[in-house]
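In response to reviewer comment 3 from the previous cycle, which asked for concrete evidence that the modeling workflow produces usable outputs, we include below a single protein chain processed end to end. The sequence was submitted unchanged, and the resulting structure tokens are shown without manual editing.
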Amino acid sequence: MSDVTIYHNPKCGTSRNTLAMIRNAGIEPNVVLYLETPPSRATLQALLKQAGIGVRDALREKGTPYQELGLDDASLSDDALLDAIEQHPILLNRPFVSTPLGARLCRPSELVLDILPAPQQGAFAKEDGEAVIDAQGKRIQK
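The workflow returned the following structure tokens.
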């Protein structure tokens, strides 16, 4: 069992790019299709704590019931936001990645590079053609 887990949505380009960078490091992660198998409340709270972000920072607005549920109300508690995510997993932004080195909401996808326990094994370009890793496995600085 891999000690790297990605909470993944295969319809999301950022999520696909993140998964590809994990695999480019020679790691086959535990892939959790979080819309089908959402993380438990306790797992989600642990991921957020490990990533150093709040519940509101993990919410996705676009293509979700965010507005209809009134989640833009700043007075809503973290518990209320977690309740909404439990009822509507699409509200959880993606992809989240957890490794022995930490957890991140990988937006942009390159954030995964900061927590991978193995180096990139070769060149990598995102689906849109943007080069991220050079032929020596080094991150390309912009």
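Residues 5-133 form a domain with the Glutaredoxin fold (CATH 3.40.30.10). We consider this sufficient to address the reviewer's concern, and the full set will be provided in the supplementary archive.
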